[in-house]
Amino acid sequence: MTDRLITHLRHVDLAVPDYARQLEFYTTLWGLTPVAEDKDVVFLAAEGSPEQYVVRLRKDTDKRLDLISYGAASRDDVDTLAERLGTAGVQLVSEPDRLQTAGGGYGFRFFDIDGRTIDISAEVENRVHRRIEEKEAIPVRLSHVVINSPDVTRTQSFYEEHLGFALSDTLIHPYVGELMKFMRCNPQHHSLAIAKAPHTSVHHVSFEMRGLDEYLRGTGRLLRAGTRMIWGPGRHLAGDNTFSYFVDPHGNTVEYTTELELLDEDSWHPSLHDVSDPNVQDQWGTANPFDELVGQETFNDPDPGCFVAPPL
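Structure tokens predicted for Oxidoreductase (312 residues):
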């Protein structure tokens, strides 16, 4: 798409009741690095990523998604997106302005069609990052986020029409219909996916590992620590990426992945993948079957943050 102004996924911000427990999980076990902390809020970076942070945790009485943040190439692109969204009747949470968060920058926020707060920013200073070494089983970067929606087609249309996302592939079931839409804002197969669910919530947040060995070492570390893995290890067909899905202390699903497919956008044509074919869900055949119980885990709790902007 020639007028696509979104460039990439920056970070996912979560609010959690048991702040200390979540912080321990994401640092000691998951492998993220605290780079800034204030009263009841912490910013967590991935050592291999130039983003200032990839996860923000904030203490709250409610578990909720605070926001999903995407990058744009320039201040002008941020202004153009804000003007387009406002003209189209999309509710802006804030107007474009200088950012006060780490790395500075320029951005604004709005509610998507389901009420999630979305953040768009540009000119954020890159963080000094490093090469992840062989056998170092910590996340390189944030890979993608999957959101739950009671109306997948409506949510897909919003992201296509207003933000320039493109459809990469669709998961279907012969009796249920469309289950998941994989959406891209760059050649990566998906930075966003939209899953069919009974309510609006986070489906999972995915983190890229250095390679297969590091992915398996990280998976093993979580298993040895007693963290519950709900699905994996395996390799999907759509996106061709590996997967190990775990549940964090507040019931959010998080994923270790690697080798997510990069597409030639000029020649790519979306496919329909039938999940009743076991090879679609897991090409290796090593993961436990994706059954109704696994599906219920990824539904997560209904998000009380819809159309309610986070306090920061």
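The first strand starts at residue 6 and ends at 16.
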